[in-house]
Write a structure and sequence with these properties.
about 190 residues, 3-stranded antiparallel β-sheet, MAIN-like
Length: about 190
């Protein structure tokens, strides 16, 4: 994954947050969890440029570290916890089922029966739909966040149904070790 693609996700999430209606954003902020707190990113354009520059200039792919002058730094789970607030201990971020044909129907309704993938924009549209219940919209937001930061698949235009298993019980979100998954994705992404 190029540095630009990693950094570009920051801007995309910021724009997504801005597109949500004020009332829904307030509800999300009043009922937060570790993933939702990542939504309100400040200064994504500046941050994106900074991330690209740091990765391009200072990341050593062989050592998996950043070198600044003579100082060598590695990103650790503690760093992820401190910077993002994502839990680093808990249930592993893995799917219970390898195929979940009724996942989208369970959370989004009959229209999605039998679908195993949804277009990214379709899930965003559900999050933006003011006529849907709060919980359904929150699940859509969580799926978008998982796809952008936590466990993206290689097809950047669709979200797989298995991810629903991780977010459909919105009260259990913080029982997962999202920080571990994010760090794993980060290191994997830096190698591509």
């Amino acid at each position: 994954m190029s540095a630009a693609r990693v950094a570009g996700r920051l801007s995309a999430i910021s724009k997504f947050w801005e597109s949500l209606d004020v009332g829904f954003k307030k509800q999300l902020q009043d009922n937060p969890n570790s993933i939702i707190r990542l939504l309100n990113i400040k200064g994504p354009d500046l941050l994106s440029k900074l991330v690209c520059s740091v990765i391009d200039r200072h990341y050593d792919h062989n050592m998996h570290t950043f070198t600044f002058s003579s100082h060598v730094l590695g990103v650790t789970l503690e760093d992820v916890l401190y910077l993002t607030g994502l839990p680093i201990q808990g249930k592993p971020v893995i799917y219970d089922k390898s195929l979940d044909k009724d996942a989208f129907e369970r959370v989004f309704g009959e229209k999605f029966k039998g679908k195993t993938q949804l277009k990214f924009d379709e899930v965003k549209k559900i999050a933006l739909d003011v006529h849907r219940p709060f919980k359904v919209r929150k699940i859509a937001v969580l799926l978008v966040m998982c796809e952008c930061f936590i466990s993206p698949n290689n097809n950047h235009h669709e979200i797989i149904s298995q991810k629903v298993q991780l977010v459909e019980k919105v009260d259990d979100i913080d029982f997962y070790a999202w920080g571990e998954a994010l760090l794993s994705y980060l290191y994997h992404g830096l190698e591509i």
